Amino acid sequence: MSDGGDTSTAGPHLLVLSGPSGTGKTTVVNRLVAESPVPLRKAISATTRKPREGEQHGQDYWFLSADEFSTRRADGEFLESAEVHGSGNWYGTLKSEVDHAIEAGYWPLLEIDVQGAMSVIRQYPDAVTVFLKTPSAEVYEQRLRSRGTESEEVIQRRLQTARQELQAAEHYRYQVVNDTLDRAVAEIRQILKATAGD
Ligand code: ADP
Ligand code: 5GP
Questions:
Q1: All domains in the chain, ordered by first residue
Q2: What is the strand order of the sheet 46-47 is part of?
Q3: For every one of its 198 residues, what pLDDT tens digit does the chain have, with 9 covering 90 and above?
Q4: For a tag site, which of 26, 132, 181, 192 has the least CB within 10 Å?
Q5: Which ligand gives the minimal distance to the CA of 181?
Q6: Substitution site in 147, 149, 158 for ligand 1 pocket (most atoms within 8 Å of beta carbon)
């Protein structure tokens, strides 16, 4: 069983990416996985929320029932888990996702919320943590709306969560502004290169 205590700089590091919903995390992650300078593998999170149009079980998330999620949580299968956005939906990183990636020589990429990230930092102090921001609050709201996947009520809740999440940005090792996609991806690639060269 993993105690999560690997604090050496050699070998794979965890990459933790957070930022308010709509900042562009999923878009950035897709680009990074394709263009990373280190072997990077996305840890597929589990969630109790319903799939959005086009989302695939085992690819975007492991979509679990509330019962299955809570049983697996009680059994200690999660590295971290949290109820996100006050929505009643749970999200969590399965230990198996991280352990299997590391065993295969990959750097696990965790796209998780601020609560989850704080828990991961305690367990993996050498994790590379990146907080993704938009250039302004207006841009953030535009992107959230432009995706067109959430109701007004959900958007309002996510805007509220975003204001709280931004206060946690200082706890991350790096803050990256997702102004243009190419530039933001290049900056994170640079961070990974520098970490690998430590
Ligand atoms: P998140 O995963 O953080 O919730 P998404 O990746 O779904 O965010 O992005 C939200 C919306 O913003 C999407 O419509 C996406 O295409 C768009 N987007 C992401 N990055 C940029 C960028 N750098 N410039 C303009 N639009 C972007
Ligand atoms: P969405 O519903 O838009 O896919 O994700 C909503 C939020 O859940 C995002 O802020 C995302 O970072 C967070 N999230 C996704 N997976 C996990 C996870 O495994 N753990 C935690 N703590 N948060 C997650």
A1: 7-196 (3.40.50.300)
A2: 62-63, 46-47, 90-94, 78-83
A3: 334 444 444 578 999 999 988 899 999 999 999 999 999 999 999 999 999 999 999 999 999 999 999 999 999 999 999 998 777 999 999 999 999 999 999 999 999 999 999 999 999 999 999 999 999 888 889 988 888 888 899 888 888 888 888 899 999 999 999 999 999 999 999 999 999 987
A4: 181
A5: 1
A6: 147
